[in-house]
Design goal:
Aspartate Aminotransferase, domain 1, globular, binds pyridoxal-5'-phosphate, 17 strands, single chain, 4-stranded antiparallel sheet, 7-stranded mixed sheet
Length: 490
């Protein structure tokens, strides 16, 4: 299927074929549950008609989307390639092998595991594999046992106690880390003793000396790098040095920026793959694949990761692994590098457009795909800004800023991302116009009043006519860059 970004043709024969395929599929589905057909059609209209700036979302190609709707879904295939707990898995073996081969080639790694159902699942597999390789295996050797089943009750209790002592050091949530990086309400914060590293309070930037100091003091088993809302690149070579100094395993969660790694925008010290022991990712954000996850690992962790299913994961989703194979094949094409370069250039154009119009950005800008706009100078919470923008056809999400006085629910920030609109073909000038629209909305929104008469952190009042004017401006941009041009499912 043609690349979404470069395809402008409304008479693309492949889009005509996709249109026919979708129309047929919707007709078949409609014979069972027409409301689902209505929701599918409405979602396409919504996606086509809004400025999607959610940094974690994208638009997968019709080839990726179509791959998900097949009978591969019907096969159980617990285990790994050639080593399944079910009979008749030869075609799933092919699918998983092709997906893993593309992942290895794309990211330049010796081992890839393509089964995780999502990013969180990929992280669970990674934690489990690191515990298995770094804690369980040496303990079994010491106790003269082959597997945990050979342990006496007393030895088993000792091993469980050892698991309970392990530590994880990850980026704090308000600095941009993810809740699976040891945040207490998450299972990771319960499995591990956890400590966070933040960012410099003045600059908002990661301070490697502080990370090193925290690692020396805390001596974690796992040092996690990676983020959901940090608008800068990371020096993974430096992170590996820190991990090595304290004997930690470096795990990088590149869920957000995998597309920039795949597209060779992040290379050398900014590419986590050569430096980390274990790398996890989602496949549906900047990588533009189906919803899912991947684990890439150094060979010493491969055996443990391979046991992810059924030890941590439910049965593999063969139809999704097939779609991962298609998406990874797309990401190996030269046009994907062009896309990834545009993602970074467009985020910069958006940041510059906001700064030029007087906005305050966390870290003062971006050098990845994320821009974090601090809306407190406009007298708004993130929740209020998110609502006002949504009413104006601009889809974003609220996000904490470092040391956020409004907490994780109301927040003071808005996270913006360039991957989705770049897939539609938006360029730097378009992103500058997006910046203008955003500033137009947040500068003409007032905080509302709660029922108690006190200022509200949730409600807001948008000045008359702003929402309609912004929607009209957005529509001009969206019409110039149609989503799935030529795809007609009416
Ligand atoms: N890791 C990071 C850094 C993320 O940003 C996210 C999603 O937002 C995840 C993991 C979880 O991914 P998923 O929603 O696929 O489980």
């Amino acid at each position: 299927m043609t690349d979404l970004q470069t395809d402008r043709s409304r008479s693309d024969p492949l889009m005509d074929t996709a249109s026919a395929a979708y129309r047929a599929a919707l007709e078949v589905i409609g014979t069972v549950e027409p409301r689902i057909v209505d929701a599918i059609r409405a979602e396409l209209a919504d996606q086509r008609g809004s400025l999607k700036l959610i940094a974690s979302e994208n638009y997968a190609s019709p080839a990726v989307l179509l791959t998900m709707g097949t009978w591969l879904s019907d096969k159980y295939a617990e285990g790994t390639i050639g080593h399944r707990f079910y009979a008749g898995c030869q075609n799933v073996d092919t699918v998983e092998s092709v997906a893993a081969e593309h992942a290895r080639e794309l990211f330049g790694t010796e081992y890839a595991y393509v089964q995780p159902h999502s990013g969180i699942d990929a992280n669970l597999v990674a934690f489990w594999a690191i515990l298995s390789a770094r804690v369980e295996s040496p303990a079994l050797e010491r106790l003269g046992a082959k597997t945990v089943n050979d342990l006496s009750e007393a030895d088993w209790e000792e091993l469980r106690a050892e698991f309970g002592k392990q530590r994880m050091l990850g980026m704090s949530l308000d600095a941009g880390g993810h809740l699976t990086h040891g945040f207490r309400p998450n299972i990771s914060g319960k499995m591990f003793h956890q400590r966070s590293y933040g960012t410099d309070p003045e600059t908002g930037l990661l301070d490697y000396d502080r990370v090193a100091a925290a690692a020396r003091e805390f001596k974690p088993l796992i040092l996690i790098a990676g983020y959901s809302a940090y608008p800068r690149r990371i020096d993974f070579a430096r992170m590996r040095e820190i991990a090595d100094e304290v004997g930690a395993t470096l795990m990088v969660d590149m869920a957000h920026f995998a597309g920039l790694v795949a597209g060779k925008v992040f290379t050398g010290d900014e590419d986590p793959v050569p430096h980390a022991h274990v790398v996890t990712t989602t496949t549906h954000k900047s990588l533009r694949g189906p919803r899912g996850g991947l684990v890439l690992a150094k060979p010493e962790f491969a055996e443990a990761v391979d046991r992810g299913c059924p030890m941590v994961l439910g049965g593999p989703l063969s139809h999704i692994m097939a779609a991962k194979a298609v998406a990874l094949a797309e990401a190996r094409r030269p046009e994907f590098s062009t896309y990834a370069e545009s993602v970074a250039a467009n985020a910069k154009a958006l940041a510059e457009g906001l700064l030029r119009r007087g906005a305050r950005l966390v870290t003062g800008g971006t050098d990845n795909h994320i821009v974090l706009l601090d809306v407190s100078p406009f007298g708004l919470t993130g929740r209020q800004a998110e609502g006002a923008l949504l009413d104006s056809g601009v889809v974003t999400n609220r996000n904490s800023v470092p040391a956020d006085p409004n907490g994780a629910w109301y927040t003071s920030g808005i996270r913006l991302g360039s991957p989705a609109l770049t897939t539609r073909g938006f360029g730097a000038d378009d992103f500058d116009r997006v910046a203008e629209l955003i500033i137009g909305v947040v500068s003409q929104t007032q905080p509302g009043t709660a029922k108690s008469g006190k200022p509200s952190k949730a409600t807001y009042e948008l000045a008359d006519g702003v929402a309609d004017k912004t929607k009209a401006g957005a529509a001009e941009l969206l019409d110039a860059h149609p989503l799935y041009p030529g795809l007609d499912v009416s």
